[in-house]
Amino acid sequence: MAKPRTAPAPALELLVHGVGGVTPQQMLDDPRTTLVTGDATAGIHRRTDDVDAEERPGDHGDRPVPEAYCWSGLTSGNGARALWLVLLPFMIANLAYWMRPAAPRRHRAQAVYSVLARLLALSLTVLLTAAACELALDLVAWQCAGSPGCADNTSWLSFLAADSGGWWSAPGRRLVVAALLPVAVTGLLWWLSHRTWSAYESASPPPRALGAAPPEPGEERPPLSLPGFWYGRRLVSRLRAAHTAAGLLTVTAALQYATLHHDTRADVPGGLVATGGVLGLLCAVLWALVVLVVVHRGRTENEADEHRDPAATKVLPSAAAALLLATAVHTAWDRPGWESAGAMPGTGAFGTLAVAQGALVAALALTALVLHRRAPAGHRSAMGGLGGAAVALIACALGGVLSGGINQRVSEWLAPGSSAGASSLITGPPVVLTWQAAVIPGLIAAVVVFALVSAFRTWRTCRRLTPGVIDGYPHETAELRSRSRRIAGTVARAGLTDSAPVLLGSVALLTLVLGAGAVLGAQLSERPPGEAAGAAPSPLPALLGLAQGVGSWVMGALVILLVTMGRRAYRDAGARRTVGVLWDVGTFWPRSAHPFAPPCYAERAVPDLSWRIATWTELTGGRLVVSGHSQGSVLAAAAVWQLDPATRRRVALLTYGSPLERLYGRWFPTCFGPAALRALSRETECWRNLWRLTDPIGGPVKVDSEEHGPVDRGPLRDPLHYGRTLRNPLPAPICGHSDYQADPAFEEERALLLAALGRAATASPDAAGASVSADPDCAPAAEEGAALGKVPGQGVPDQGVPGQGSAGRSSA
């Protein structure tokens, strides 16, 4: 008697898109889609006809059911979210935290690096609040309201004007009113961080045994596989309390210093002096507590940390607010004879803050060098391990530019010429800000020179590669010079991505030198650059004055540019793709250094994916291919890392256009270095990666061993056809980073992955637990092309053009 036929196990392809805000309809190539699970922000979608596909496993034959995870709502929204771009320095500082070299996690220098990164992030909060204090307290309340000529030109300041004789005209009371602005800024940052903390950092990992096979000798578990990696709720809460208190204490210190400067030089009652001393002592104690909270404890990744922080941490912002209120009362107390003249006392703190940030960056660089020396062999770190320090320096410089730009533009608005020290109405912003403005044209000139050099190198590479393009298409002999040049130019431009470390290192070094010169010049001269060089030969003051003027306008324009770009990025798909790479890389990482940075979308996306993979495989017992493009491949890899071994045996990974090694492995070697990628390949049932030489973002993952076989297939041919043929009468497009699914290699590799999962499901438990990557049927269907040369930055032999060669696939 024949045995009854059993239905085949269902197969699912879980698609994860990259940057750009792709819709479910575009991902599934069907106008009729249905939300299966999730919400409008991030959810799983299927074609409407496939909603109940598991009940009809035979309807799709050998093809998997497509399912799309759309996460674009996590990084896009209405135009108001463009304001996040103003907080770009916070995001960059958070990036520096994750750019440490891949030394062992237990090395002492790792803890030192984390502490330095968090202290540097704290200094940026102080800088932002100090910039708000400079604008409101110094420029508006102290200088403009205290100058009759300036106050007469701004009617909205009439109730604060010193010559009005009103109750609010006293300097202390004017400062108290103006302090509402920096307090409001701090409160807004706290509210944004708290709101996003509830929506992002609170997504719990799947409740499964997240164990894994032991690492190879000499290797550690990859950080992204640890249960608590994507659950940073406690750390962000603690840092939010500390940074909120720091912002309030910065305002408090500004008020206390101004009153102390007057009280120690005037005949005031002794009770006021004593009260000021007590308030100053309390301020110093709270500052010590803030620093202690920041440096005391970092991330807890070995488990999902649900512990509560001590009550002292939670009440820290309330204590800082109470002290600020008491200081405001003390500042507003009647002090006859107190007048505001010149700049507000305490504005020299900007120079001190710049020096402190420089010292922190230098210490971060030394610590990174120590870690780089202890990194395992074969790791490739950007800038020899100094990438994090360079990025931290850029964050500080950008914070200074934004702070100076806003203050200089407000100063010019209140009294034209004040930013250059040429106004008789007000003194203007601190001198150090004008010196910082004067060095900006030098940085711009350096970037322009780098762009010209890169353009020349691209042109030269294009010329070198052009003659060999036609060799990659052995069945097409009609050579078109313009077509070859276009393909070779695309390859040459794609290689520019790998020049980013040179650009960043050059800008960071020049920023350090020019920034140090600006601080030194401001301390020695105490005058704007043009006036300081007045005694020199005539061209020098004119050049410095021109540089200061240009830099001042650039500083102000940068703020407007960031907001404008942000609004366009969230409204226009083309603009979003332009800034999407930096934005989505920056917000991929948990907020481990700065709690006011834009929220980490991966702390919602990765648990979403891991929950879906774990529950679907458990409910159906089917095979699942996680198919990730570009940034989606990073999310897919992070989700697979979070699975337990039993689930991994039913899951395969297909990545294409992936920056896993080319960008993440180079800039974030601790999490995506060679050891981590080897562990991912070893523990995943099967993994394939498709890449092209024309792709400026994706590249090979370079995981290849005798035991597990190669992961990469490529370079793929791009374009698929060189000229016009009988089957393709119109020119094929050069796809670059897009349309990987249109390449026949995509379906071939997906079919091989599903076949490998089917064999693993029917094997013995021991066999199923082992990786099948070395299985010939799971190996790449065919390798593309023969080596013709070396494309800059790829680091592997290539054809000079993507996937061209005499050994092309017969199906192409």
UniProtKB/TrEMBL annotation:
Keywords: Membrane, Transmembrane, Transmembrane helix. Residues 44-64, 200-221, 765-812 are annotated as: Disordered. This is Integral membrane protein. The keyword Nucleus does not apply. Residues 789-801 have a biased composition (Low complexity). Residues 46-64 have a biased composition (Basic and acidic residues). The chain crosses the membrane at residues 82-99, 111-132, 175-192, 241-260, 272-295, 315-333, 353-371, 383-406, 433-456, 502-522, 542-563. InterPro entries: AB_hydrolase_fold. It comes from Streptomyces durbertensis.
